[in-house]
């Protein structure tokens, strides 16, 4: 019932890709971003998942429509990345990442099979459509839950 009620309240899902602009150490920047995201997103009931690798980002944001919109507007102004491409922006029936105000996974050599599932050889999410980008994030999130 909770999922149904969330849907009626106007739950929104947004997926975008962007590239790191190269100031500072990528891993350190990702850690800083995730720490701030967890704090901020919790306050406005936004959850989601961030994939980072090869100097690129793929992020899933979900939550009340206004909160997602405002969060994305703030993210879009962030100089630490550029070239934002919105891949999906639609009403959502339910949350996928309800346990994470911002889960994250660093893409690495162990992720070849995961990438192959969506037809990629390297982590290059910019050209993905909503289905494949969504699947990549969901599968990465599942693996993360299992500690894989
Ligand atoms: C790839 C990327 C993803 C981000 N994701 C989020 C997010 O989910 N939530 C958030 O509040 N800020 C996120 N940020 C950070 C925002 O752009 C912004 O720096 C931050 O919200 C400001 O928070 P503060 O006012 O607490 O410093 C992200 C930034 C980048 C580059």
Helix and strand run = HEHEEHEEHH
Number of helices: 5
The CATH level-2 architecture is identified as 2-Layer Sandwich
Q: What small-molecule ligands were found?
A: flavin mononucleotide
Question: Structural class of the secondary structure composition?
Answer: alpha+beta
What's the gyration radius in Å?
14 Å
Q: Uncertain regions: pLDDT < 50 for 5+ in a row?
A: none
Largest sheet strand order: 4-1-3-2-5
Number of strands: 5
Q: Which shape, going by the Cα principal axes?
A: globular
Q: Strand count, sense and closure of the main sheet? A: 5 strands, mixed
Helix percent reads 40-55%
State mean pLDDT (0 to 100 scale). Answer: 92
* CATH class division: Alpha Beta
Can you walk me through this structure?
Strand 2 (47-53) and strand 3 form a beta hairpin. This protein has helices spanning 2-8, 26-44, 65-76, 112-117, 130-145, and strands at residues 11-20, 47-53, 56-64, 81-91, 103-106. The radius of gyration is 14 Å and the shape is globular. The chain is of the alpha+beta class and 148 residues long. It has one domain (2-145): 2-Layer Sandwich (Alpha-Beta Plaits), CATH 3.30.70. The model has no long low-confidence stretch (mean pLDDT 92). The protein is built from 5 helices and 5 strands, in the order H-E-H-E-E-H-E-E-H-H. Flavin mononucleotide (FMN) binds next to helix 2, strand 3 and helix 3. Flavin mononucleotide binds at residues 18, 33, 36-37, 40-41, 50, 57, 59, 61, 71, 74-75, 78, 80-81, 102.
